[in-house]
Amino acid sequence: MRTGSAFLLVLTGVLVSGGELLSEEPSRSVPGAPSGWQATAPRDEIRPEFIFEPKGGPNGAECFVIKADAREGLDGAWVRTFPVTGGKSYRFSALYKAASVSLERRSIVAKLDWEDASGKSVPTDQPTVANYLRGSIGMAETEFPRLIPPQVTTGPKYPTLTGRRVVRQKR
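User: That's the sequence. What structure does it adopt?
Assistant: Structure tokens below.
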């Protein structure tokens, strides 16, 4: 049986063009967490502990913590919906710190879902394959921003999850 703890500074977000996202997963607000942030897990029996520390991050910044105990298979995330507007560029970035996590790139991920105000998939802004299904419009897929190893040489080192996307207006 694996024991130990995993700590995480900011994790996931959902980008939505308008309105709030309705999640099928049980989500809960955490005392002291900023408005809109929810702690979520697929099922209560595998829910880790969620803590918000107003000054627990680097340089006294806010810190969203996911803490696992000795139980196997714990799974959870911090989630928030952000409205977006077509034609604008958006950037996502989150620092994290992990302890007792065997493979960080599989255990610590950021996930961006592109949905409309009703929680349905939206058309992609990328062109479809030429000479195949001409005129069809593909749907935006879930994105997983890449992990960037720490670049600093002094002080605490925090890997970063980051991504950038231009949201195009409907044609």
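Residues 1-24 have pLDDT under 50 and may be disordered.
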